[in-house]
Write a structure and sequence with these properties.
Elements lengths: L4 E2 L5 H8 L13 E2 L4 E8 L2 E9 L1 E6 L5 E6 L1 E2 L5 H7 L5 E6 L1 E5 L7 E6 L5 E10 L2 E9 L13 E2 L1 E2 L4 H4 L4 H6 L9 E3 L1
Length: about 200
């Protein structure tokens, strides 16, 4: 489960060139080394206009703890797209976003805090398929995950983030629920590297 990624602000102008959106870096500060609950940059549509924004990573939801008491948990990765909680966001294109990243991490199993770092070969920045909602603390986002591709599977067999190709960005921000779910699939491993 991806709970760490990096975003290089110096690459945002390059990302704009191939993403096809005239978005600027947000005026608000955002983390470049992003962990859950930190502020990350997202790109979303607002009344038909594509804009950048800053939101907290991790959508709050209530879960029942071992004692039976309700606890608030921040969910950063979304896999069960049919659950009512996520479906309501995913079905509404206005609640979808792109989450730009330079590289993302998955833990090295059995190696403490060590991580594998993955990136997209032909893009200095890529984007995860994200969803967001307004919460009592302000806006928060998460991104979709899917089964891992051939590169990730031996290192992190559980899942990988849904990475979109630039020619899918507009579709992600505007398609219907069925179309959005169909985009939840592994990115081609041949276009990625690991360190």
């Amino acid at each position: 489960m991806c709970n760490h990624y990096r975003n290089n602000p110096d690459q945002i102008p390059l990302w704009r060139e191939y993403a096809g959106f005239d978005v600027r870096q947000p005026n608000e500060e955002f983390a470049t080394d992003v962990y859950p609950k930190r502020m990350g940059m997202v790109v979303r549509k607002d009344d038909g206009i594509v804009r950048s924004d800053v939101m907290a990573w991790g959508v709050p939801c209530d879960v029942r703890g071992a004692s039976g008491k309700m606890l608030e948990k921040r969910v950063t990765n979304v896999r069960k797209l049919s659950s009512n909680f996520w479906k309501s966001m995913l079905a509404n294109p206005a609640q979808r976003c792109l989450v730009p990243f330079s590289t993302f991490a998955e833990p090295k199993i059995g190696h403490g805090r060590e991580e594998w770092w993955f990136n997209v070969l032909d893009q200095p920045m890529a984007a995860f398929a994200g969803i967001w909602r307004q919460c009592k603390y302000g806006p928060a986002f998460a991104f979709l995950t899917c089964e891992p591709n051939e590169l990730l599977e031996p290192l992190h067999p559980k899942a990988m983030p849904v990475i979109l190709d630039p020619n899918q960005y507009e579709e992600w921000l505007s398609t219907d629920f069925v179309g959005a779910c169909a985009m939840s699939k592994p990115f081609p491993s041949i276009r990625m590297t690991v360190q």
